[in-house]
Structure of Diaminopimelate epimerase:
Amino acid sequence: MKFTKMHGLGNDYIYINCFEEDVKKPSELAIEMSNRNFGVGSDGLVLIMPSQKADFRMRMFNADGSEAEMCGNAIRCVGKYVYDNGLTHELNIAVETLAGIKILDMKVENGKVELVKVDMGEPIFDPALVPVKSEKNPVIGETIEVNGTVYDFTCVSVGNPHAITYVHNVDDFPVQEVGKIVEVNEKFPKKTNVEFVQVVDKNTLKMRVWERGSGETMACGTGACATLVATVLNNKSNRKSTIKLLGGDLLIEWNDNDNHIYMTGPATVSFQGIW
């Protein structure tokens, strides 16, 4: 079976072209291929498939085999894959995900996609839909105690759940220690992604992320989107900001006119192989 390893700012996934390949047990395959010692090594597996609702369909599985609704970095790579490999000649495409249909606008240089702008849709604040168990709506300042320290979280869904908290120095913060506990906290019925954010200024945020089912990753596109929205809600940021992640920068805008979030960032091929 042919595969392509790609990444968005270091958030790396294995991509399978299901127009040509047949994957019968994607959860098991995700666990096996994602293993960084005995497999290809990745944050998960992405299947690029035909769709009856859009131009393409994306299914993604975390490194632990769980299926996720969406991934901003992964969907940018899907756009690059289908264009660079001739599955489409359009620069504007629709991709079906478990979080709905997302629209991609691709920027091409020398015949290859370099940047992808994704319409991530509207943020979701209803706690029942995030989902998070809370009396607040929107969920701002939800407290969770971890190892004796109380953290305030703002909870937002952009098709998948996110819990955002603010720290003074994100570089030195114990992301793994705190993230793995918050991910499975009883307040999150479907677990949650956890973002730790340092506000540099109104136009710049630094973020590290603990991804549900994968652990800490180099970047998270949906997490960057949720982070901007949460930071606007907390009056700490403008509606358009650069999110600085371990793997690089994303430009995120929460548009005031249509209430949609727009994410712009790169997509990169690492290598191709046969499994």
In short: Helices lie at 26-34, 72-84, 175-183, 221-233. The mean pLDDT is 97. The domain at 2-121+265-274 is CATH 3.10.310.10 (Diaminopimelate Epimerase; Chain A, domain 1). The CA atoms of residues 53 and 96 lie 7 Å apart.
